[in-house]
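Task card 7
Instruction: Convert sequence to structure tokens.
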Amino acid sequence: MPKKSTASKPLPPNYIALDINQDELIVLGSKEQVLDYIKSYCESEGMDEDDVQSCISIYELGKQIDLQVANRIEVYF
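Output:
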């Protein structure tokens, strides 16, 4: 009888969307959430296709890295 794998499945990736012209975070979430919110954001801001391509950046986020901070603001990974 084959053994069951105890390894957990990886979490789906999260995405972040930014309006780079206004230095504004638009949304952080799953791919579907980001796409839906960007559509609403663009409609509310009156953006056309060129505005969207030049103003909005979307990034896939990796796993979170814990930081260790010592006195005098030294950061360690």
